[in-house]
Specification:
- The chain is an alpha+beta fold.
- About 25% of the residues lie in helices and about 30% in strands.
- The protein has 3 helices and 8 strands.
- The strands form 2 sheets. Strands 4, 5, 6, 7 and 8 form a 5-stranded antiparallel beta sheet that branches. Strands 1-3-2 form a 3-stranded antiparallel beta sheet, covered by helices on one side.
- β2 and β3 form a beta hairpin.
- The longest helix has 14 residues.
């Protein structure tokens, strides 16, 4: 059975976040690394690192908490799934919580936040929403 790599990553981050763990470790892929870069740039995770050789290639995501040890990530939601892909054009890119969250869009120019895709005037597949 093939699994959805983005859903796997989001589930691991969600579970580690709810358990108040410092890190979430998962098998790495190019898509997961690009998603980790985007989440770090948007301020939702503290950092990420790659480990291991070609066969045992892992991605470690360092979760971010505020000074009172409250989670920075309140929620993660997978939008486009293997059974139902969700595509948007540049005019219908969703705003998450009125701009307080971020929609991750897979475009011809790579993974972009919804705000950046709107600024560039391109649409694509809505992978997930983070708030």
């Amino acid at each position: 059975m093939l699994t959805d790599p983005v859903a796997d990553m989001l589930t691991r981050i969600r579970n580690a976040n709810m358990a108040m763990l410092d890190q979430a470790k998962m098998p790495a892929s190019k898509l997961k690394i690009e998603l980790a870069k985007l989440l770090e740039a948007e301020g939702y995770i503290a950092g990420w690192s790659e480990e291991g050789a070609a066969r045992d290639h892992f991605l470690t995501v360092s979760l971010k908490y505020d000074k009172n040890r409250r989670q920075v990530i309140s929620g993660l939601k997978r939008i486009s799934k293997p059974g139902r892909r969700v595509y948007v054009d540049r005019d219908t890119i969703p705003k998450v919580l009125g701009g307080m969250g971020v929609a991750v869009i897979s475009t011809s120019q790579g993974l972009l936040s919804g705000q950046e895709a709107r600024r560039r005037g391109i649409g694509g597949e809505v992978l997930c929403e983070v708030w």
